[in-house]
Design brief:
The protein is an alpha/beta fold. It has 7 helices and 10 strands. The strands form 3 sheets. It has a 6-stranded mixed sheet. Strands 1-4 form a two-stranded antiparallel sheet. Helix 3 links the parallel strand 5 and strand 6. The chain is globular. The mean pLDDT is 93.
Length: 202
């Protein structure tokens, strides 16, 4: 399933590799890889593969989940589709409390002690995702873990999740995606090494 997901992400350019002409991130960092999993929503066939994969991953790793929540905004649609496949309640976690009405940060019903899985589209260092995990915990949820579409496997991400005592699983990771990209001729072995060196420098 991870290779199938990688093929989909590369095909629709949700993950884009361009070692010869690096992208400039908002931070100013020059990167040979760019990830925008939001575009998955625009491709029904590939979207189906991704959502089926996410649902299977939740079922396998967190089979006793009672609800599926998404991170705002990227994880919301994916959480809804995964929850539909698993016949579970869903909701989402805002980046911050809204400034009007009930000033909710968590949207959707959440019972104290409920076992929840959080859906994220991309994990790099895990910062914003872990803020959502803590918000769910503060609201009384038992967060079983986080499931994402893709991860760079950045060491700082592993460390951050460990320090928050939170498990995360991803449908596809950078190593798998690069293996598929080399096999299909998208990039060379030398370019694969270049991308991995960049990741390891973060």
């Amino acid at each position: 399933m991870d290779k199938k997901a990688a093929e989909c992400l590369l095909k629709i350019k949700a993950v884009y590799l361009r070692p010869e002409q690096p992208f400039t991130w908002a931070s100013g960092i020059k990167s040979p890889i760019y990830c925008d999993n939001r575009i998955v929503l625009s491709y029904p066939a590939e979207r189906g593969v991704i959502e089926d994969g996410l649902a299977a991953l939740v079922r396998k790793e967190f089979g006793d989940a009672q609800a599926v929540f998404g991170t705002a905004t990227a994880g919301i649609a994916h959480a809804a589709m995964v929850a539909e496949r698993l016949n579970l309640p869903t909701g989402y976690v805002r980046g911050e409390n809204k400034s009007h009405g009930r000033q909710n940060r968590i949207e959707g019903r959440l019972d104290v002690g409920e076992k929840v899985v959080l859906i994220e589209d991309l994990i790099s260092t895990g910062g914003s995702c872990l803020e959502a995990v803590e918000a769910l915990r503060e609201a009384g949820a038992e967060v079983l873990g986080v499931v994402s579409i893709f991860t760079y496997n950045i060491q700082r991400g592993f460390d951050n999740f460990k320090s928050h005592d939170c498990v995360y699983k991803s449908l596809c990771d950078l190593e798998t995606l690069l293996d598929v990209a080399v096999k299909t001729g998208y990039i060379t072995v030398a370019q694969k090494s270049e991308v991995l060196s960049f990741r390891n420098s973060l």
